[in-house]
Amino acid sequence: MLYASVEDVSMRTVRSFTPDEEVMLAALLDDAGALIDACAKDADCEAKRIVSCRMVLRVMGAGDLSGAPIGATQGTMTAGPYSQSWTIGSGSNGELYLSKADKLLLGIGSRIGARSPLEATP
Q1: Is 9 or 69 the better-scoring residue by pLDDT?
Q2: Which tens digits make up the pLDDT trace of 53-85?
Q3: Helix, strand, or coil here: 111?
Q4: Contact 3, 48 (CB under 8 A)
Q5: DSSP symbols for 19-82
Q6: Domain spans of the chain?
Q7: Which of 26, 40, 62, 115 pairs as cysteine with 106 (C-beta 3.0–4.6 A)?
Q8: CB neighbours (10 Å) of residue 59?
């Protein structure tokens, strides 16, 4: 489910997106919505919109994506003898994820999804 639009994401960054990137944004927003629903289906709709935008912006980055891998923060290219290297930003390898702040916004805090069997003992 989509909780944010391409326009919502565009309003939160200084960069402009190409038409191809806007198609990618729409797909990532759909993926972000599915991830949010899996973790916090009953969260507030406004929180879901904010978190969707934050998740997608982490993947898209603030720089120009032309020729760079998703999540790259630095790159080097050399013409001969064909060298290329990229630095992927910490915490982002192009994957959508919920940050600690995102989880707080959604009201799920830092749950880990498991509990000790001793918690159930009276």
Answers
A1: 9
A2: 999 988 886 445 456 665 566 677 788 888 777
A3: coil
A4: yes
A5: HHHHHHHHHHHHHHHHHHHHHHTTS-HHHHHHHHHHHHHHHH-SS--TTSPTTEEEEEEETTTT
A6: 6-111
A7: 40
A8: 20
